[in-house]
Amino acid sequence: MTYGLPGYETPYCASPIVVDYENGYSLSYTLAHNGAVSQLDEKVTGNTEYTNLQNAEYDIFGNMIKTEDALGNVTEYEYDIFGRPIRVTYPSINGNASQPIRIYYYDAFYDGNTKCTAVLTADQNNKASMSYYDTHGRNYKNTVIKNFSSLSSVDWEHIAEMPTNAQILITQLNTYDELDRLVKTVDGAGRPTEYTYDINGNVISQTHGEGESVYEAEFTYDAAGNITEVDQAGQITKSEYDTAGRLKKTTDPMGYTETYAYDLSGNLISHKDKNGVYTYNTYDSMNRLTKTVKGDSQITYTYDDMGNMLTATSETGTITYEYNEDGTLASKKYPDNRKISYTSYDANKNLLSMTDFFGNITNYTYNGRGLVSSVTEKYSGSAAQKTFSYSYNDNGSISSANGPSNIKTTYTYDYAGRISFMRNSTFNSSVYTSHSYTYDNSGNVTKRIDSIGGQGSITTDYSYDSTNRLSKEWGPTEKLYYTYDDHSNMYSAVYDYDRYFAYDANNRLTEVEDLWIKGETADGEKQADWIIDYTYDNNGNLLSSSKYAYYPQDYQSNQKTYTYNDFGQLTGYVDNLGDTATYTYYADGLRASKTVNGVTTKYYYDGGNVINESRNGSLYAVNVMGPDGYISRTQGGTTSYYMKNAHGDIVRAVTESAGKTFSATYNAWGEIMDSDNGSGNPIGYAGEFHDEESGMIYLRGRYYDPEIRRFITEDPAKDGWNWYAYCGNNPVKC
C-alpha cells in the first residue's frame, strides 16, 4: 500500500517492525516519516486465521490527514497553513450517505490592547462553540452558541464578533497571573474557584465558591515538591515520602496512620492500614502483581506471555480467563465452573456475540463509528429473538432506542448537547413516561417535569450553591433545603422535616437528629423526634447505626450492624427488624453472592454488569445491557423492559403487552419515594442494584446509602475533597 505523500517518492520511512508470538499472533508496525505509526497489521494463524489492517496517512508536516480502521471506516483531517485543524470528516453514524463533519475557524482580534484569537467550532447540525485565547496562547474564555443558525451565516472575517443573531453563553472564564499560572476560573453560572501559588509554582491554596458556601484547602510542600500537609478548614492530613519521592506515611486529622513500602522497581510491597492490618504484595519479573495477602486473606494472579490475566483466586474460588490469539477475551469461567463465552468479534475487536452458561445468546452490531447499533437476545430453549436497535446523532449521542413490540425511547438535546426531553412509549404509541429538563449555565438541572403512566405531570425544581452542591429540592414528594459544612458534609436538610447531621474530624457521620414535622398532634407537638448514632473502625468503615426515638414512646428503634472482610468489603448486615444478610466477593472485587434471610443469589458479570443471577443452582434472572444501561430483565418466565429518565433511574418496567411489572419514583439522592414492585425488580436509582434488605445501593467498589446521602466507607482512591460524599453532593448531575 502507498500513500502518495506530497514530496515523497516512497511511502514509508522505515521497514515494518514485526513482533511474533508463539500462539500464532503477529503484530507489524510501519512508521511514517514523522515516526508515527502509519500502518498496524495484526495477523493470526492457527485455529482462527484473519488479518486486521489499520492505516494512517500524514502530510509532509507530520499532521495526520486520514485514518482507516480494519472495517474500512475512514476519518479525514484538514489543516490550514499554520497546521491548525480546520475540518474533520467522520464515518457515517447510521449508515447514511452523509458523513458528520466538524469545522474549525480562527480569527485574530484585539480585546482592548491585547491581541487574541477566537476559535469557532461547529458541525453541520448547527451545534457551535467558541474558545478565546490571549497572546500567550492561554484559554481565557469558553462559550456555547445557543441560536447558531448555520455555517453559511457566519462572517468568517470577524468570527470573534459573530454570529450577531446568536445568544452566546459563557461556560468558563479563566484568569492567569504574570507567570501564566491559572489563578481563577468562573463557570457559566458565575461560580468561582481560585488558586494561589508559592515561588516554586506549587498550588498552596484552593478556594471553591463564595459567600457562605465556600470550602477551601491549603497545601504545604517539601523541597522536592511533594505535598506534606493538606489543611481543609482545620482538618490536617500529613504525608511523608522516601528518598525516591514515594509516599511512605500518612496521618489523618484524627491521628490514624498508614504506612507504605516499595521494592526497587517502585512496586508497592507492603501497606499498613489505619486498623494496623498489613497488606503484602508480590510481583513477577515483569512487575505484574501475583499475590496480595491482607490479614488472613489472600488473592493470587497468573498471566500469559502477552500479559493477559489467566486466573484470579481468592477464598471464593478461581476465575479463569481464556483469550483468542489476538488477545481478545474468549471466555470467563467462575469458581462454580459456569462460563461466559465471547464467541466472536469484528475486525475492530468489537464484541459480536456472547453466550452465557445457561445458553442465552446476546448478539451485537455496530455502526461506522463503533457505536452499538443493535442488541439481540436469544433465550435458551426459545426460537424467539428480542432486538433493541439504536440510532445516533452525528455527535454520537443516542437519538432513539427501539425494542420489541415497538417499545421505544426517543431523546431530544439542547444546544449544549444535554438531554432536554425523553419519551418512553409502547406498541400503541401511548406515552408511558416522559421527562423534560431545564439547565443552568453550569449544566445543573434546574427543573425536571415527569409524566409517568398517565398520572399527570410532576414538576421538581432544583437550586445549587456557589460550589455546585444541591441546595434545594422542591417537588411534590420532597421539599427540602440543604446546607453543608466547611468540609462539604451535609449539615442540614430542612422544610418537610428538620434533619441535622454531625461529623468527626475524618468526615465520618456520627449523628443524625430528625424532627419530623410533616404532621403534628392536636396540641402542636411534633410527631417524632429521633437520633441515629454511628460508629466506625479506624479505616472509616461504618460498623453500626443505632436509632433512638424520643417521641412517641412506642416508636420502634432500629439497630444495624455492618461487618467487613480483610479487604474492607462489606460481608454482613444485620438489623433488629429481622433482616440478616451476608455478602461474598470474587477475586476481581465484584460481588459474588448475597444471602438474605437464608436465600442466596449468585451473580455473573459481563465486565462490571450483572447478566445472570442464580438461586439453588438454577437460573433466576437474565439481565441484558445496551449502550444506555440495563434494557431488560427476564425473571420467572416474564421479560420486563426498562424505561428510564435522563439520570438513568428505572422509573417503569413493562412487558411486551404493556403490562406494568415495576414503577418507582426517587428523590434526588436515590431514596425510593413511591414504588410498585411486585416483580421483585432490584435495579432502580441510576440503573444500579438496590439492596432491599439494607436500603443501600451496590456500586461495585462501595455501598451507597441514599437515606444518609453518602457512602458507608471511605473512597479507596481517596479522590476529591470529601471521601464519603456522593457525586460531590450534586446527585442530580451525576
Automatic annotation (TrEMBL):
Keywords: Repeat. NCBIfam families: Rhs_assc_core, YD_repeat_2x. Residues 211-398 form the Teneurin-like YD-shell domain. The lineage of its organism: Bacteria, Bacillati, Bacillota, Clostridia, Candidatus Ornithomonoglobus. InterPro entries: Rhs_assc_core (IPR022385), RHS_repeat (IPR031325), T6SS_VgrG/RHS (IPR050708), TEN-like_YD-shell (IPR056823), YD (IPR006530). This is Teneurin-like YD-shell domain-containing protein.
